[in-house]
Structure formats: C-alpha cells, structure tokens
C-alpha cells in the first residue's frame, strides 16, 4: 500500500495526537503517583483504584444530572472533575491515616498492603456498579471533532483532556515549587528530621501530600471517562505503565515525569501504527526496562543525597 | 555428620520437628485422607509452595522483594509444557491438521513449520536442563543488570513487575508461537507415560512432594552456617558487609538465581499435575499472590511458606466455590492484616506461643518447667535493624553453645 505525502502527513498528525491523548492520561495518573512516590517514597498500588473512584464519581454525577437536572448537562462535567478530586483525596486522606502512616519504615510492606486495598476497592466497585463497564453521558461540547484540513480529524475530548492535563500540571508546579506548602513538602522529602526540628508538622505534610496525589488520580479518572469506559479493573490495567512513567522519569522530578510520559506515550502510539498493539507495548516496556537497567535513577534524577 | 544433618539441613531440634510434621502431613496424611481429586488440588497448591519457598530465601533473608516470581514459575512450566505438547502433537495424532506434526494452536494460526525455539524441546534431557537453566539464566541477566548497579528495594519490585507484565503480554500476543491466552493445553503423555490416569497422578504427587521437601532442605542448608549469616547481615546493614570486603551483588545474584530455579521446578511440576500451562500463572496477579503465600507463612520461615501456600490456596478454592464475591475482600484484608498485624505470619504466631506450648508439655512430662526456649533467629523480621542484628548475635551464641 502506498501513501501519498499528504496522507502520510495526516496519519502522522493523527497518530501523534492519539499519542498526545495517551500522554495526557498517563501524565495525569503519573503526576499523582510522582507526588506520592517521588516525595514520600511510598508505593501506592491502589493508585489505579483512586483513578477509578474519580471515574465512577463522574459516572454517578452524570446519571444524577440526567435524572434530576437535565438542563445542567452542559456544566456537570466541570463539577464532576472537582468532585472527583475531593472524593478521591478524602479517601486518600483516610487511607494515609488508617494504613500508610504505620508503614513508612517498611516500603515493601506498604506495597503489599496497598495491593490488598486495591483488591478490596475493585470488589467494592464490582458490588456497587456491577462487573460491566460504564461510561457517563458526555456533554455535547465534548463530542465531535476539529478538522483543520480535509484529512485530519482531531477529537474534541482529546483536546479537552490535553488542556486539563496542562492546567493540572501547571497547578502542581506552582503548588510544589512556588508555595509555602510545596516548600514544606520538599523540605520534608530532603530531610525529615531537620524539617521537624524547624517546626514543620511532617505528619500533616505527609497526609496532605498523599491526599493530593490521590486527588489528582481522581481528576485523571474523570478525564479518563471522556476517552474510554470504566470497569472495576480499569485502574489496575494502568498501574504498571504509570509506575514505569514515574520511575523512568526519575522519581522526584516533575519535569522528568512529563518527559517520560510524553516519550512513552508517543513511542507506543507511533509503533502501534506499524506493529500490533501488544508488540508495541512489549517493545516500549522492554526499552524502558533496559534503559532503567543502564540508568537506574531514571532520565532526570534529582540531586538529593541519599 | 549427625550434627551436620540436624543443624545445617533441618535447622536444629525445633526445625527438625517442624520438618517432620510437614513431611508427615504431605506424605502420609493428605494421601490417606483425601480423594484423588482433592489430592491433585493439594499437589497444585504445593507447586505454588516452591515459589513461596524461593521467596522466603529471596525476600525474607536477603530482603529483595521480587514481584515477578511468576515469570520463573511460568518459564519452568512452559518448558515442560512445550515438551509435552510436542509429544502430544505427533504426526499420527495431528493427522487432521493442514500441517500434521505441529501443535494444534500453531496450525490454527496458519503456521506451517515448527519455530526454531520449539525444536530442542522434543528432547526430554534438554527439557529437564532447560527447566533449570533458562530461568536461572534469565534471573542472572536481570540480577547482574540490577544488583551490580545497586538497584534494590521498591525499584527492583517495580521493575520485576514490569517484566512479568512484558512476558504476559508477549505470550498472549504471540498466539501462534505460545498458545496465546489459552496457553498450552491438552497435554497427555510424558515419554509415553499417560500423565492423566490415576496412578500417574499419585506418582506425580509424591514426586512433587519429595522435590518440595528437598527444596526446603536446600534452602535450610543455604540459610544456616556462615552463608546464611552473611545474607542476614546484608539485609540489615548492606554497607557494612560491603565494607568488610564481600561482594554483596554476587550474593544477591546467586540467591536470585536459586529462587528462580526453585520456582521453575514448581512450574514444571504444575504443568505435569494440572495438564496445562497458561499466561494466567505468569503475570502480575499470580506473582503477587505468591508473595502473600510467603508472607502468610512467615517471611523468614521456609516451612511456614509451605503452610502459607496451602492455607491461602485452600481458602481461595473454598471461597471461590461457595461465595466468589467475598474472596477478593478476604484476600485484600489478608494482605493488609499480614502486613499490619502479623508481619511474621503463621511462623511468628507459632514462635510466640511455642514457649508456652513446650513448657506446658514439659511440665506434664517431668514436672519441672523448662524455661529455656530456643532463640528464635528466624523470627525477628521486620524489627528495626538493631534488633535484627541482635538476632544475628543470638545465632552466633547458639552456635558456640551447641
């Protein structure tokens, strides 16, 4: 099969945009994880389930709005994003209080305990929403596509998610690097004892950091509903990819996380065009693992003395 | 010689008692009281116990948590399955296929020639060798790449998990070469010996049980003596061991390879007893479930790992049969409870009450309460480093007094 130049260009743009959509979801999920893992060193295997919490919140709000306030369908989605953030972060706050704080000295055990939590949450989703995948009714302004030329067709929901991702990323940047609270978080990461000595309530910092990470996962879930439907095990499908993004980028580096989410998503979606999607995934993950074996600290390591 | 057996292989008096009890349970009690179907199930659980025993060595003793042990279980299982499948796909058996003499799933996927990596598996000798060598080689490569660069802890866990995912996606994706999501099924004979009839099932159960007990003894042997002390010291204060002139990474690579081989034996026995192998025993979920077997048993107790595998798998079968929706809650709660409340698992609970139990028994027998309880070197797991290094000192004093 021969492609003309214009066709190749259109394929390249659309495939590149598909990569950008994947990039936005990966980055949204990875941002929360990067905050929790990078700043606190905690492995949260239930992160995918916090994302599912956001997705289900959106679904519930969509059903409620459709039932009781059909006129508000245009704006409910914005409310849902905010609600997803707060519900997921409240659950995260509880998790930190009930589980994580007892295990800070045993990172491997945290991994097992949060895995257990993820199993429980998956079964809860299954009991409440059923095993079938659900998706909310999207507002009209998210449907359709933008066509700059005859052949190029860019879906609006992808553009929206991209915009949301940019917004959240910038927000996280300002919160972490330009606010008093971010300063406290970074100080606690670098030297917990010293931070405590200068009067930072490190326990409170931990709890809020964990809640923030989970909340961002909730936003990721809300964004996810615009692209695909949600099932009880949706979260667990993305958890390994997300961890690879964070580790590959260098755990404590925000810029590294963005760069690695971008390269992983683009590599995968461009390869998907030429080979089967399972082989594309194998090759992408294999490349990351090989690079990590050569450079275990990830692409952009932070200069923290261990 | 006698002290070599009791001290090094069985782990002292209490270790020998524990070993006798588990041997009696596996070799006598189960075969006598369970029907063949249930015994076959127990045999399947015991193949998971291989992985758990390997994890005790790797995680409990060296402190390396691998979330990819299913990979090695799978490699061993697939090696065995490839051999059995080739034997089951003789040209006479597969005469109705468009290409006779190749496995059925290859025929379905329009493959007309046996792939090169399947060729050597028509030899039984090669297969047996491959079951041990391929996983060990794989573990060696991963181990060298990771441990030489001092990657450990959570990073190692995440990367091994990614490797488990890669292998599963690869197996599922390359349906024509691997059997895809269904795995390699319909296995019949081993060198002409029907593995599906009743006598074969009994024989395979006992072979499996003896191999497992042999692995338990092997791990015991590795753990006791100077080598085991070094492993424990590495877990507690790796830097000090390094400064004392030991090459820590080589020890880790060695243990990782041993654990991989033990898991692979389990995988091969699984294929023989269950009659198929599929990617659902390779991926992330089975790998992490195998970690919980070791954790429930007590992450530093080899025999505990066997009990853990039996106990959790039995629970899984029981609840999946009667109330499947409850099982995931229980499994999740088990993960959390083991980590939060019983970090030493069943072995820890046993150790805690062992003193009371023995003194009660002794008082009845001799009338004098015996207060000497064996120093429990194998139990101070997740305690703070200084406490755990204390237990190493205990081990030394135990050695010098005996």
Description:
The complex is a heterodimer of chains A (306) and B (402). Chain A has 306 residues and is mainly alpha-helical. Helix content of chain A is 72%, strand content 1%. Chain A is built from eleven helices and two strands, in the order ααααββααααααα. A two-stranded antiparallel ribbon of chain A has the order 1-2. In chain A, β1 and β2 form a beta hairpin. In chain A, α2 runs antiparallel to α3. The longest helix of chain A has 36 residues. Chain B has a two-stranded antiparallel ribbon. The radius of gyration of chain B is 22 Å and the shape is globular. In chain B, β1 and β2 form a beta hairpin. The chains are: A mainly alpha (306), B mainly alpha (402).
Give the arrangement of secondary structure elements:
The complex is a heterodimer of chains A (306) and B (402).
Chain A: H1 5-40, H2 47-68, H3 76-98, H4 107-129, E1 145-146, E2 154-155, H5 156-177, H6 180-190, H7 192-197, H8 202-224, H9 234-249, H10 254-274, H11 277-294
Antiparallel strand pairs in A: 1-2
Helix pairs in contact in A: 1-5, 1-8, 1-9, 1-10, 2-3, 2-4, 2-8, 2-9, 3-8, 5-6, 5-8, 6-8, 9-10, 9-11, 10-11
Chain B: H1 2-9, H2 12-33, H3 36-61, H4 69-88, H5 104-108, H6 124-147, H7 153-173, H8 175-178, E1 189-190, E2 193-194, H9 198-223, H10 225-236, H11 238-243, H12 248-274, H13 284-297, H14 302-322, H15 324-340, H16 345-366, H17 385-401
Antiparallel strand pairs in B: 1-2
Helix pairs in contact in B: 1-2, 2-9, 3-9, 3-12, 3-13, 3-14, 4-6, 4-12, 6-12, 9-12, 10-17, 13-14, 13-16, 14-15
